């Protein structure tokens, strides 16, 4: 048993002082600091702010590795790299590539789930493509796009937690209706008009992938997917790297959706945490310079974003407090994935997944299931 004490804590959207967290692999108790004498455990004193670990539901790679490398080692590299930014859980995100390569990647995700020993914990897979619209492919390879089908996905439905698709490519929304109660379905890489987006939400889509990017935008006579997201009770995620979306829109969408339906993501590719240079994403050459990742034609190709930077950007460009920003990095993604009964909060009985940040908002310590990383 361990006891963290000394700094402030973020509990359910509020920053509190003079409390201690008693834990092993889960949180045993949250008590007044003076009451630690009643517990026989290792006392760990910290400064700064203790908050729930960050959950990244959309990340392709980091540290030179990518989910589509289809190897246990690649997933281990991603997990061990992103933990440095306070990420304690993530969805290994695939891309539109050959079906055999996607299947190989999913096989490795399953093996990693069963045998992972360190780093941010993999929660499963996010299937981004191949069920997308070629007209909105972004940095994905149009050669491998296919119509939505559950046939070859069936063996992997135990590990696939989120699927991004273009509903206009799904006749009568058959795929959506079939899987809506088994996995989180999200609209993305889509050219759906406003009415189609509304119909897809009614059919079972409940989320919007990297809102504004690779989708129909907001126009006063054709509201598009962005407009549909604004008017309906779906959640949205956004890449908060200041490249993909103008930061002045962060607050607008937080005001419209509420913090529980706004999720910060990285959409990071293998260059994250590395130097500028030439990399690849889904078999396509990517040039990374500064904070931008671009294909040769200038298309944005993922990001080198980090969850600690997401927190810093949201704190700077919105009126949210540190405690409120913490919610969109932890509680909101946990709610979307249906794991908010055990992750995303500092509550008794929840997994002991913590990040400690100093006054400059740099990550100093990370705990996952009670172990210090």
How many β-strand stretches?
Answer: 23
User: Helix share of residues?
Assistant: 10-25%
Low-confidence segments, given as residue ranges, are: none
| Lateral strand order in the biggest sheet | 8-11-12-13-14-15-16-17
Q: Would you write up a description of this structure?
A:
The protein is 23% helix and 27% strand. The chain has helices at 72-82, 99-115, 174-179, 194-203, 224-231, 248-257, 307-317, 322-329, 331-336, and strands spanning 2-5, 8-11, 14-16, 19-23, 27-32, 42-45, 49-52, 54-59, 61-62, 65-66, 87-93, 121-128, 160-165, 184-187, 207-208, 235-239, 262-265, 277-281, 284-289, 292-294, 354-357, 363-368, 371-372. Strand 21 (354-357) and strand 22 form a beta hairpin. It is of the alpha/beta class. It has an eight-stranded parallel β-sheet. Helix 4 crosses helix 5. The protein folds into two domains: 2-50 and 355-372, Roll (Urease, subunit C, domain 1), CATH 2.30.40.10; 53-343, Metal-dependent hydrolases (TIM Barrel), CATH 3.20.20. It is globular.
């Amino acid at each position: 048993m361990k006891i963290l004490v000394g700094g402030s804590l973020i509990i359910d959207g509020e920053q509190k002082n003079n409390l201690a967290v008693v834990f092993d692999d889960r949180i045993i108790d949250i008590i007044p600091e003076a009451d630690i004498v009643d517990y026989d455990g290792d006392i760990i004193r910290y400064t700064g702010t203790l908050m729930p670990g960050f959950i990244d539901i959309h990340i392709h790679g980091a540290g030179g590795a990518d989910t589509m490398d289809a190897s246990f080692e690649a997933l281990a590299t991603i997990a061990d790299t992103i933990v440095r930014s306070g990420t304690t859980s993530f969805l290994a995100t695939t891309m539109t590539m050959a079906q055999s390569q996607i299947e190989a990647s999913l096989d490795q995700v399953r093996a990693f789930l069963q045998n992972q020993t360190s780093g941010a914990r993999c929660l499963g897979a996010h299937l981004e493509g191949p069920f997308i619209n070629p007209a909105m492919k972004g940095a994905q390879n149009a050669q491998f796009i296919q119509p939505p089908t559950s046939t070859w996905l069936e063996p992997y439905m135990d590990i696939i937690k989120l699927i991004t698709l273009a509903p206009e490519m799904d006749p009568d929304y058959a795929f959506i209706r079939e899987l809506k109660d088994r996995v989180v379905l999200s609209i993305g890489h889509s050219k759906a008009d406003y009415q189609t987006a509304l119909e897809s939400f009614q059919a079972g889509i409940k989320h919007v992938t990297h809102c504004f990017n690779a989708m129909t935008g907001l126009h006063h006579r054709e509201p598009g997917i962005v407009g549909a997201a604004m008017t309906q009770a779906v959640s949205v995620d956004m890449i908060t790297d200041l490249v993909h979306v103008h930061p002045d829109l962060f607050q607008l969408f937080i005001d419209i959706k509420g913090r529980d339906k706004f999720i910060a993501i990285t959409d990071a590719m293998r260059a994250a945490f590395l130097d500028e240079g030439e990399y690849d994403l889904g078999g396509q050459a990517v040039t990374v310079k500064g904070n931008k990742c671009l294909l040769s034609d200038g298309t944005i190709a993922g990001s080198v974003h980090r969850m600690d930077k997401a927190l810093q950007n949201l704190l700077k460009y919105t009126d949210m407090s540190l405690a409120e920003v913490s919610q969109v990095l932890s509680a909101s993604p946990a709610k979307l994935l249906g794991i908010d009964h055990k992750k995303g909060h500092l509550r008794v009985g929840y997994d002991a997944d913590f990040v400690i940040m100093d006054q400059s908002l740099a990550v100093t310590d990370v705990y996952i299931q009670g172990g210090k990383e």
